[in-house]
From TrEMBL:
Molecular function (Gene Ontology), one example: ATP binding
GO cellular component: chromosome
UniProt KW Hydrolase keyword: yes
Record domain DNA2/NAM7 helicase helicase: where: 256-602
Name of the protein: Helicase ATP-binding domain-containing protein
Organism: Oryza meyeriana var. granulata
InterPro entries named in the record: DNA2/NAM7-like, DNA2/NAM7-like_C, DNA2/NAM7_AAA_11, DUF6469, P-loop_NTPase, SF1_C_Upf1
Domain DNA2/NAM7 helicase-like C-terminal: 610-804
Domain named DUF6469: residues: 92-208
Keywords linked to the UniProt accession: ATP-binding, Helicase, Hydrolase, Nucleotide-binding
Length: 910
């Protein structure tokens, strides 16, 4: 559940911090669509700040504008947004609060990936309408008011199925008859998803000055005042000593290169040295330089020296990748089944999609496993008590059992004891195995840990003994034997066999351990998932989560913050984890030469709202530890990005220079490790919404290349991974539709946007640049960071498809890329390959047919009369506009449509 306010109120605040939810719900439709709503409050975020208040204020209006832009964008594309039918709605005591139930069909259809499928999440902003909206005008159809709502409750993260009921707060009153039956007919009420504002709420809370001043100030003040921090916020004295020789000894076993070792040692030195100039350490990790390995080794060292650490990243995928690598490293460094109780992975169950080994450290799964160990009636303490009672009073209880048992088939003492033992021991063993694995040793305590291990060994010996034959009398004697009889002389012991005495002593050792654990082991006795969840969170010393979900963490033992992909994170979002009370140091790992955080609003983008803390500190001259050896790309691929983006600072690792890294997937120099395929016949088109672009010729060429790869490798069992990267979503969709359900075994094909491939790598990358026009217009393709990500994903082969003329005349980084390809003899005309040439010829023929059809006069029929309508080319000739380029062509299209509309209107055709 999320508190509706989304704003934090201080008791002695001069001004109440407004509720973000109330602000969003208070926007009218015209406000949302008004790009100038916050124009008078927009200011470019500076690089340095005078004080904390001005720092926080620089983000508030921009945050609101970015949210407005997201809502506006969703409304404009409302037909593509997930939606669902509301089957029941009821108003609560509060006028604008409602209980709602979604249609079961809508919920279950999520698996079909249809746009209409929608399962709400807490924090969603939804828009309500009396029909499934296909256009923004449908929202206020028939005078219906513009009503949006905020999903404030619904479901528990520990539940495995969608909740039946949700609670929403609406911007206005909802017709009480909506969603109910009248005269056998049902008034339909639909909800369409617009965006989730959970992260925005968490950032908004951090921007409240009256709350911020009461939080941990050490890192925040340095962040605000850098680089003057030494004068304004003196460095705190470090209170933890560290053995540098021990650290170096551990590092030497990890097979790191010099730059990785230096980065780790410098970070640790900054953490523990009182002479360090900053509480922030920056690690610069270009593509393929072993950034994840560096992070995991650093975390392993933090675990070794018991230093509480929070590890964050902007996305669930990035968090999972680091967590999985860290878990693998722990297991490699452990001789037996390592305890991972101090390691915890937190996050939303639905979004994280946890499987495999990650379940061992995932909070939801840990709570579920420990619940069975902690419940009062069947948990660890109950099992210990049961065995203690059996070992101490087993014989007397058996005698009472015989008195109470009337039947002739009463159990023998052996059967009675074995039955009770086997009913308890397996469950106790299971409980303690889960506890030893999922609860940190520091919480169990060394003495208890050793006692548990010893107890389980003794109980296993007894368990094996109970499986033997002809020992009934021995077991009975062992329970009649008292440990204090060992000091009563030989006559006292003569009535017991040697085996019984030995077994009796084992019983007493077990009893002693059982009672010690009952007295000293302090673990929860509860059936509350909430209490167990809090126990796990407070017990962990290495916690993984997204930056946003770190708002749920309040662990007071976390002194170090590590942020992966820090250059992709808006600086204001960094405030969420930096609020932790015990933090003393932060390590930011990223690369500002790759894609920054996504920003919808152009105004916000220009105001540097998407700039990261990593980038700002770097621009102010903060020291960065460069990882300078790349292990991913064939040297032919790494040359261009190394020169263009990294000032020749990167080195090719030995592995990429070896013969094994030289792959030849298709014959001919055209399909070498680095090639530019010039496709002059390409044609760029706008998609149906007029928002994104596609190039169907490049789509067909990609299909042909994949077909050739499949044919060349069909007889081998070696898997080859191919990534198809497109800067435009429309091109991604066009390729997916073209390929359909085609299979290319053993070729594994992944198709995604540039943003979707950031952080990924494949054997072969096929890059479709899409743009093909005579004016050299490439739009956002000219972004250097986007280009860098595109050309650094391939291990062995990078094949770039594009119109060389368009790219060369763009005046962008792409002109440099084409020139580089030509200089290195890596430039090829696509039609030089006979199979691709055939595909291109087919497209030329189809294009010519379409042109002939378009230029032919069209006719419209009205009451038996055919009326000629001007052709598109005719309209263009008559247009007074002399401008050229994409913009003018769009104007021509609009003019063409308008002329047809006028003709139809004159003919009274509707």
């Amino acid at each position: 559940m999320i508190r509706r306010g989304g704003g934090v109120r201080g008791k002695d605040a001069e001004e109440e911090w407004p509720s973000l939810v109330d602000l969003v719900l208070g926007w009218k439709l015209e406000d949302v669509m008004n790009e100038n709503l916050f124009k008078d409050k927009m200011k470019r975020i500076p690089s340095t700040f005078s004080d904390l208040k001005s720092y926080l204020e620089s983000y508030t209006s921009l945050l609101l504008e970015e949210m407005r832009a997201e809502v506006s964008s969703s409304l404009e594309a409302i037909s593509t947004m997930p939606s669902g039918k509301i089957s029941w709605i009821e108003q609560k005591n509060n006028k604008k609060v409602y209980d709602i139930v979604f249609d079961a069909v809508s919920q279950n259809s999520k698996a079909c990936n249809r746009p209409e499928s929608y399962i709400p999440s807490v924090g969603d902003i939804i828009i309500l309408s009396d029909g499934k909206p296909e256009h923004i005008s449908d929202i206020t159809r028939n005078g219906r008011p513009y009503i949006v709502a905020f999903v404030t409750e619904g479901g528990d993260e520990d539940d495995d199925s969608p909740p039946a009921k949700y609670v929403i707060v609406s911007s206005g009153k909802i017709d009480s008859e909506d969603g109910k039956c009248q005269d056998g007919k049902k008034n339909q009420l639909f909800a369409a998803y617009l965006l989730n504002i959970v992260t925005y709420i968490r950032i908004w809370r951090c921007l409240d000055y009256n709350t911020a001043v009461r939080r941990n100030q050490s890192l925040i003040q340095e962040m605000v005042h850098y680089p003057l921090v030494a004068k304004i916020c003196p460095k705190q004295t470090k209170d933890r000593s560290i053995d540098s020789m021990e650290i170096w000894s551990k590092l030497s076993t990890m097979d790191l290169n010099n730059s990785q070792n230096d980065a780790i040692l410098n970070c640790i030195s900054s953490m523990h040295s009182s002479n360090s100039s900053s509480s922030f350490s920056l690690i610069w990790g270009p593509p393929g330089t072993g950034k994840t390995k560096t992070i995991t080794v650093l975390l392993w060292l933090m675990r070794e020296i018991e230093h509480g650490t929070l590890i964050c990243a902007p996305t669930n995928l990035a968090v999972k990748q680091v967590a999985l690598r860290f878990l693998k490293l722990i297991k490699e460094c452990s001789l037996d089944r390592a305890c991972v109780g101090e390691v915890l992975l937190c996050g939303n169950k639905q979004r994280m999609c946890i499987d495999g080994d990650l379940k061992e450290i995932y909070l939801h799964d840990r709570v579920r496993k420990l619940l069975g160990c902690f419940v009062p009636m069947t948990g660890w303490r109950h099992r210990l008590s049961s065995l203690s009672d059996l070992f101490e009073n087993g014989y007397s209880q058996y005698l009472k059992y015989l008195e109470d048992e009337k039947e002739d088939d009463s159990l023998s003492f052996f059967s009675y004891t074995r039955k009770r033992f086997t009913a308890t021991y397996p469950e106790l063993r299971r409980c303690f195995k889960e506890i030893l694995f999922h609860v940190p040793k520091s919480i169990i305590l060394e003495m208890n840990y050793n006692n548990i291990v010893s107890l389980l060994e003794l109980l296993e010996d007894l368990n094996r003994m109970f499986q033997q034959k002809n020992i009934e009398n021995v077991v009975k004697e062992s329970f009649m034997y008292n440990d204090d009889q060992s000091g009563s002389g030989i006559s006292s012991l003569s009535k017991f066999s040697e085996t019984a005495i030995s077994l009796g002593k084992i019983r007493f050792r077990c009893l002693k351990l059982l009672n010690m654990l009952l007295s000293c082991l302090k673990l929860p006795i509860t059936s509350s998932k909430r209490i167990i969840r809090e126990f796990c969170m407070e017990s962990a010393s290495i916690i993984f989560c997204t930056v946003s979900s770190s708002s749920k963490i309040s662990n007071k033992n976390l002194e170090l913050l590590v942020v992966d992909e820090a250059a992709q994170l808006k600086e204001c979002e960094s405030l969420i984890p930096l609020r932790l009370p015990a933090l003393k140091h932060a390590i930011l790992i990223g690369d500002e030469c790759q894609l920054p955080a996504t920003v919808k609003s152009k105004v916000c983008e220009d105001a540097l709202f998407g700039r990261s803390l990593f980038e700002r500190l770097s621009s102010l001259g903060h020291e960065k530890h460069l990882l300078n050896m790349q292990y991913r790309m064939h040297p032919s691929i790494s040359i261009f990005p190394n020169i263009s983006f990294y000032e020749r600072k990167l080195l090719d690792a030995p592995n990429v220079k070896q013969k094994e890294h030289q792959k030849k997937y298709l014959p001919g120099s055209m399909f070498g490790p680095y090639s530019f395929f010039n496709i002059e016949d390409g044609k760029e088109d706008l998609d149906e919404l007029g928002r994104s672009r596609k190039n169907v010729v490049e789509v067909s060429v990609i299909q042909e290349i994949l077909r050739k790869l499949q044919k060349a490798h069909s007889k081998t069992k070696n898997k080859v991974t191919v990534g198809v990267i497109c800067p435009y979503t429309a091109q991604v969709i066009a390729i997916q539709q073209k390929l359909g359900k085609m299979k290319f075994d053993p070729i594994i094909v992944k198709i995604n946007s540039v943003d979707g491939f950031q952080g990924g790598e494949e054997d072969i990358i096929i890059l479709s640049t899409v743009r093909s026009n005579s004016d050299g217009i490439v739009g956002f393709l000219s972004n250097r960071q986007r280009t860098n990500v595109s050309v650094t994903r391939a291990r062995y082969c990078l094949w770039i498809l594009g119109n060389a003329t368009t790219l060369s005349s763009s005046g962008s980084i792409w002109a440099d890329l084409v020139r580089d390809a030509k200089d290195r003899q890596c430039f090829f005309n696509a039609n030089s390959d006979k199979d691709i040439s055939r595909v291109l010829a087919k497209h030329r023929n189809e294009t010519n047919k379409v042109k002939d059809t378009r230029n032919a006069p069209s006719k419209v029929r009205n009451s038996g009369v055919w009326v000629q309508v001007p052709s598109r080319s005719g309209l263009k000739d008559q247009s007074p506009s002399t401008s050229t380029g994409v913009g003018s062509r769009l104007e021509d299209t609009a003019e063409y449509v308008e002329d047809i509309t006028v003709c139809l209107r004159n003919l009274k055709i509707s």
